[in-house]
């Protein structure tokens, strides 16, 4: 069997720090050549050589993914806890790492990659709950396209930031467990055929059933990975429920829907409204929030929405 390679973002490799494993370059589809040996210092000259070639990625052998992930988490923890590093640089570091690890998890949702993603989410959540300026930078860094892993990264950032506002000072809420649920809420979408996921027109009844199945598919994938928590279970299963009972998969009504799911639902709707999708043009933040206030928010959502609006002030 041919060796499998995984992409690593150039931005996650730290200057003057030893490469965590052998690094490779892609010269064409499924063809990789050796670039740098494990232990070699990754300096600016090396980075510039890669950029000059028109690439922003290097590659590692899949068998060394755990080794690289440990390096990445160690690097992020060091950056996040270093008072000399500015908030914008901390935000950029965790944002890049989240996008990379979630892309891998959504493209190949094996337990090993889901576990690695959750490891990287830990310093990300810690940054959001401890640094207001970094959180503002993270919110401004959110990029809007129709990739599910980008959507999930954005929703995770919005949701943890909102949970911090709503539950400030209440230690009974486990932010790390919430983070796993928020960032993996749409994992089941990786099973939806791309032609349905990106369909520009109305879905047929059959296609809608396939899309709605992503909730249970995502639940089953996280459950089978051994990473399920009570918080993640609630978020994944309830984030498409509606107060009027017309949501899915269990048609829950107002008082049956957990606040965690409400947080995720509002962040999910906002992200969808502000992203370019095949079936609609993106709205500005103001337009999206105005639409949500007029057409989405019901009585039980009022307090959650008031907190959500605060994320976009100043």
Q: Which keywords apply here?
A:
mainly alpha, single chain, HD/PDEase_dom, Hypothetical protein af1432, HD-GYP domain-containing protein, two-stranded antiparallel ribbon, 314 residues, 2 domains, HD_GYP_dom, two-stranded antiparallel sheet
Description:
The protein is mostly helical. It has two domains: 1-64, no CATH class; 81-310, Hypothetical protein af1432, CATH 1.10.3210.10. 55% of the residues lie in helices and 8% in strands. It contains 14 helices and six strands. It has helices at 44-52, 65-80, 87-107, 111-130, 132-141, 148-166, 175-183, 194-197, 205-212, 214-225, 230-238, 259-274, 285-295, 302-310; strands at 5-9, 17-18, 23-28, 31-36, 41-42, 57-61. It has a two-stranded antiparallel sheet with strand order 1-6. A two-stranded antiparallel ribbon has the order 2-5. Helix 6 runs antiparallel to helix 7 (175-183) and helix 11 (230-238) crosses helix 12 (259-274). The model has no long low-confidence stretch (mean pLDDT 92).
Helix-strand blueprint:
Layout (H helix, E strand, L loop, with lengths): L4 E5 L7 E2 L4 E6 L2 E6 L4 E2 L1 H9 L4 E5 L3 H16 L6 H21 L3 H20 L1 H10 L6 H19 L8 H9 L10 H4 L7 H8 L1 H12 L4 H9 L20 H16 L10 H11 L6 H9 L4
Protein name: HD-GYP domain-containing protein
InterPro entries: HD/PDEase_dom, HD_GYP_dom
Organism: Syntrophotalea acetylenivorans
Short description:
InterPro entries: HD/PDEase_dom, HD_GYP_dom. This protein has 314 residues and is mainly α.
Number of strands: 6
Element string (H = helix, E = strand): EEEEEHEHHHHHHHHHHHHH
Under the CATH scheme, the architecture of the largest domain is Orthogonal Bundle
With strands numbered from the N-terminus, the spatial order across the biggest sheet is: 1-6
Main structural class? mainly alpha
For the terminal residues, how far apart are their CA atoms?
Answer: 54 Å
CATH superfamily of the largest domain: Hypothetical protein af1432
Main beta-sheet strand count, sense and barrel state? 2 strands, antiparallel
Uncertain segments of ≥5 residues (pLDDT<50)? none
Mean pLDDT: 92
Q: How large is the radius of gyration? A: 20 Å
Number of domains: 2
